[in-house]
Amino acid sequence: xxxxxxxxxxxxxxVGMAYLVAGWLxxxxxxxxxxxxxxxxxxxxxxxxxxxxxxxxxxxxxxAFELTPEGLKRxxxxxxxxxxxxxxxxxxxxxxxxxxxxxxxxVLADRHYFVTPGDQPLQSxxxxxxxxxxxxxxxxVSQGQASVGTPASDRSxxxxxxxxxxxxxxxxxxADGLAEELLxxxxxxxxxxxxxxxxxxxxxxxxxxxxxxxxxxxxxxxLEGSVRRSGEQVRITAQLIRASDGSHLWSxxxxxxxxxxxxxxxxxxxxxxxxxxxxxxEERRELMRRVGVPDVDAFIAYQRAWKVFLDAHEKxxxxxxxxxxxxxxxxxxxxxxxxxxxxYWQTDLHQHILIAETSTLEELEEAQxxxxxxxxxxxxxxxxxxxSANSSFTRAIFSNDWxxxxxxxxxxxxxxxxxxxxxxxxLGPFGLExxxxxxxxxxxxxxGNMSSVTAIRRWNEALMLTGRxxxxxxxxxxAITQLxxxxxxxxxxxxxxxxxxxxxxxxxxxxLIDIDSHTRGSTLAETLAAAGxxxxxxxxxxxxxxxxxxxxxxxxxxxxALGQADQANELAARxxxxxxxxxxxxxxxxxxxCGAIWDIDQTPNFKARLQEAQLDWPPARVLEFPSNPF
Length: 630
What we know:
With 630 residues, this protein is α/β, with parallel strands linked by helices. It contains 26 helices and 8 strands. Strands 3, 4, 5, 6, 7 and 8 form a 6-stranded mixed beta sheet that branches.
């Protein structure tokens, strides 16, 4: 009798097959339980190791022992004249068939019923008290609009960050990238209104009631999910939830390789769109596909960069921190040269260098060249009209030719779905007050009332520029209630109080701001000057200047408020003669909201830019400083 026949007679093959089916079934059940209860990933790893070790042991056992009607016996004790092997084979066949049937049931349950952490019914998610972090000035993608103060449209949705279920925390970048890719795809459908990334990602790691999140973002639906990655294998779950009652409109789990991730993104986005009653055709599928990043490593590098980028805006040495972010953004563009957003956000470093008064001439010239080069690349690789418009406008405003500024700004506003281009708000006081209000109103509509301190500052400025002073104060008071007290919000509150001529309240609020603050420490001196308390204003100004602040916008405002015309003109002329000076001067006017704060003839370059763009001088005057000589 040869070895193959003997293995067959002793049912080694059948036992091996039954073990494989049983092992797979056990692994699936444990995986479902682990996903549902948030168990650590090492449990699955230990189980797989145990199953692998157990396989040869089971084969050896089946070779050495036989299951008989009398019980388990050693092979040497079995009477081979009886039909014992056939008896065992039938039992093994029945057992294997039963396990295969059970496996089918598990697969169906996995597809339709089981959920992962973050997928629980709304009632089980307690509200968190954590406050959202401050966000950078604009959103890296363009989104659909939602209306604040009106019922959310049935075709509105927020994509929350996917939960990283892997042991490796580095896989969180992959999970974030996947969620952003889905958001980008859905945002291209004109029928849908999609909350922006900055707005929806502020809920990352916060176990809040989905109804509260949906209400804050003014959407009717939430897309959430989880990712478990191990090497090249990835398990992605996604589910679409109706916020009003917490019901699951659609859910799916995908076990794929990394090579299949892009197909999964297409399938998820198409299923979500279909469940929101968007009729999918090839044109809409192409709209979604064209914004995708066809390189997993590139969008992981981008997510790494984005985290460093966000953190940089909370650090004192923002330029050094942004350099670290740019190394990662550059890695993303190296892996995928067509990554328009990665090109665009690299410019933030160079723009900060351009507006820093301490930058050397060599640093300024290099920053100006790099800023222009990267904005050209961002415009070249833009995949949507919004990306193209924002890149082109930003490039123009940092140039020495503003003749196309109005056209580019109108183009940006026409296609704006959420965040407009960076720096557009600086033109508001120069006869574009209504356009500024419309931009901020659109941004507010799709991000909710309290998306960030930066958004509140811009909303406050837009309201003040259009004469809505009481509304501007109410918006800041509401933001302080929702987001907590901050020096930035205190300054906005001071400006609203000054515009209402509530001097004592304004001075009291200004005292909450650290007088040594680099950019806001001048507030007390300016407030006292507006109230006509000049001796106190002079003393506060000297203290702030002695703190070593070099912020040109704050200094220009303070010089004008104190009536120091020579100092204001000298500083404005110096800024006008350097690269980036146009942005600094425009920002100073917005910072002040008090009309002219230097003699325009002292800044011939800036004057020429205003004339090219047909912008107004003097700019809008909302606040009155009695000693302002201009």
